[in-house]
Structure formats: structure tokens, C-alpha cells
Design brief:
The protein is of the alpha/beta class. It has one domain: L-arginine/glycine Amidinotransferase, Chain A. The protein is about 25% helix and about 25% strand. A four-stranded mixed beta sheet has the order 1-5-6-7, with helices on both faces. A hairpin with a 2-residue loop joins strand 14 and strand 15. The longest helix is centred in the first third of the chain and has 15 residues. It is globular and about 50 Å long. This is Agmatine deiminase. InterPro entries: Peptidyl-Arg-deiminase_porph. Keywords: Hydrolase. It comes from Geotalea uraniireducens.
Length: about 350
């Protein structure tokens, strides 16, 4: 049996999202954040299907129609959720002997920080409802979020020690045992562990998708802080040093593309928010990039375009999303080709 975890830039059937609702933490900003979701779905449906979990299909459909989403590519499913971070409770899809297999890992609210009982059932409920067609589902006895791993589709996984080795996830497993589990489940034989790097205001214990992203042709896009007075300067400098020491399967250095550092963002109570350009989503024919009405936005779009020269680079204003300490990649989960009904 052969197992492979596809790269995000491979052909997709669609993208899973969970729509914000009154009972979620989005309640104070619901109209504003729904517009961001609608804009994201509008662009996704230009290229592929948007599979949306929602508490109110009629309301969601009306909002999407109003912004011009291609509704023939929208699939709505009324499944209850606590919140909307589909990257971390959605299925991680592998190829097993060339066919899709949905892996449903345990989700514990990033180390029991938040309620997640309904979120943890979303993948199983969608599967029972036929959303994934004939693709089988395997429930995995391991706590793991999609935002904590990056695959190049060729057996290499990039991750952070701060998240995967955190005792609030799988305290019964050693680093070696976690590596063995990931090797078996994903068919990977190379793990690149980052020991440095974090974002203030991040609830995920340093998910890799906020810091560094694998890209085609042995490329890594990563967050770089150029402000020596900023609290992030030293940890991100040390992370950059680590990246320069990583080697490809062929033994060469990776092509490293730095992403610019946006201005500080704060909520109404003065808490710093984790604005990052690394939290982009690759889809068929395009890359959706979070922007923050910042002077660095254009440079971020240009940098990501260097890694994806054959795709349209589309900026999405994600200032409302970081109010809940996440961004564009965090609210989406790609579903590879063959894994949707």
C-alpha cells in the first residue's frame, strides 16, 4: 500500500469552509466578517467548488448570490459548528494506492483553549451526508490540525516543534513517535522541524501556516520581520536561519522567498493580532492572499507571485478575520481532486 499527502498546489475538487454564525465568536462582527467570507467564496467558485457548512443555507445563499458567487459551484450543508476554523477540523485527504482517503484527526480546540465538540464532528457528519462521494473516511486517534503541517507532495513535511510537540496535543507521544505516526499516515519520510518563530496573538501554538509555507520547485515562502525593535525580530530571524540550513531531497538549499512584515494590528482592547501574509490559500489557477490595508500588501502579493507565476494572485482584505486571531488559510481546507461527490 502506498500513501501520499498531496501538496496544496495540486489539482483540487473544492474548498471546505464553515460559515460564521450568531452563536460563534464572530457575533460582534458578524455582518462584516460574512462579507469577507462571501468575497473568498466568490473567488473560489471562479475555479472550483465551495463546500460550505452553515447554520442557515438560505441566508448564506442570499449573501453569496448578492456578491456574484457562481452558485452552481456552491454546495451548502447545514451542520452545527462551534466556530469556523475549517483548516483545523476539516479532513486531511491523502492518496492511498492512488485513491482519496479522508483522515479525520481529533480536534481539541488547540489544546483545550476553546469549545470544539461540534467542530470535531463536522467531517464525520459531512461524510455520512455524502458530501465526499465514495471517498472512505478513517478516524485517527491523534490530535492534529491541518494548519500545523505543510506537504510538498513528495514525502516531505514542514512543521513546528512548538505545536506538534506541545503537551496540550499528544502528551503520551515522543517526538520520534509523532514522526513515525506522520510517516505512516501521510507517507512522508522527511520531517523538517522548525524550533523558532511565533506570532503574538496566535492561539494555535505556532501553526506552520502562519510562518512558513512550502511551494513548488523546492521553494519556501516565510515571514520575515525587519523591525529590530519588534518582539518578533529575534525569533523570526532564528527561524530564517533554520530555513537556510534545510536541504531538499536532492541535498540542495531551498529557494527562500521572504514575505514582508505588516504594521502592528491591535484589537479594541489593545491586544496584538496575528497579521501574516503566510496564511494564503492556493486553489486551481489562483492564490488568495490575505491583505490588511497595509503598505506591505503589494510587496506580499508580488512575493507570492514569484512562487506561483502561473496563477492569478488575488488579495482579500482579511482585517476582520484577524480579530479572531486567524486569517484566510485558517478558515479554509482544500479537498483534492476525486474527494467530493
Amino acid at each position: 500500500m502506498t500513501v501520499r499527502l498531496p501538496a496544496e498546489w495540486e489539482e483540487q475538487a473544492g474548498v471546505l469552509l464553515a460559515w460564521p454564525h450568531e452563536e460563534s465568536d464572530w457575533h460582534p462582527w458578524l455582518p462584516m466578517v460574512e462579507l469577507v467570507y462571501a468575497e473568498i467564496v466568490k473567488h473560489i467558485t471562479r475555479f472550483e467548488v465551495a463546500l460550505i457548512v452553515t447554520a442557515d443555507s438560505d441566508r448564506t445563499a442570499a449573501l453569496l448570490t448578492a456578491v456574484g458567487a457562481q452558485m452552481e459551484r456552491v454546495r451548502l450543508s447545514e451542520v452545527p459548528t462551534n466556530d469556523t476554523w475549517a483548516r483545523d477540523f476539516g479532513p486531511i485527504t491523502v492518496e492511498r494506492d492512488g485513491s482519496p482517503l479522508l483522515l479525520d484527526f481529533g480536534f481539541n480546540g488547540w489544546g483545550l483553549k476553546f469549545a470544539c465538540d461540534r467542530d470535531n464532528l463536522v467531517t464525520r457528519r459531512l461524510h455520512r451526508g455524502g458530501a465526499f462521494g465514495d471517498a472512505p473516511l478513517q478516524t485517527v486517534g491523534l490530535i492534529l490540525e491541518g494548519g500545523s503541517i505543510e506537504s510538498d507532495g513528495r514525502g516531505t513535511l514542514l512543521t513546528t516543534a512548538e505545536c506538534l510537540l506541545n503537551p496540550n496535543r499528544n502528551p503520551h507521544l515522543t517526538r520520534e513517535e509523532i514522526g513515525e505516526n506522520l510517516g505512516t499516515l501521510f507517507g512522508v519520510d522527511r520531517l523538517l522541524w522548525l524550533s523558532n518563530g511565533y506570532l503574538a496573538g496566535d492561539d494555535t501554538d505556532s501553526h506552520i501556516d502562519t510562518l512558513a509555507r512550502l511551494a513548488p520547485n523546492d521553494t519556501i515562502l516565510y515571514v520575515q520581520c525587519d523591525d529590530a525593535a519588534d518582539e518578533h525580530y529575534t525569533p523570526l530571524f532564528l527561524m530564517e536561519k533554520e530555513l537556510t540550513h534545510f536541504r531538499t531531497r536532492e541535498g540542495r538549499p531551498y529557494r527562500l522567498i521572504p514575505l514582508p512584515w505588516p504594521r502592528d494590528c491591535y484589537d479594541e482592547e489593545g491586544n496584538r493580532l496575528p497579521a501574516t501574509y503566510a496564511n494564503f490559500l492556493v486553489i486551481n489557477g489562483a492564490v488568495l492572499v490575505p491583505t490588511y490595508a497595509d503598505p506591505a500588501d503589494d510587496a506580499a502579493l508580488t512575493a507570492i507571485g514569484m512562487a506561483y507565476p502561473d496563477r492569478e494572485i488575488i488579495g482579500i482584505d482579511c482585517r476582520p478575520l484577524i480579530l479572531q486571531h486567524g486569517s484566510l488559510h485558517c478558515i479554509t481546507m482544500q479537498i483534492p481532486q476525486g474527494a467530493l461527490s
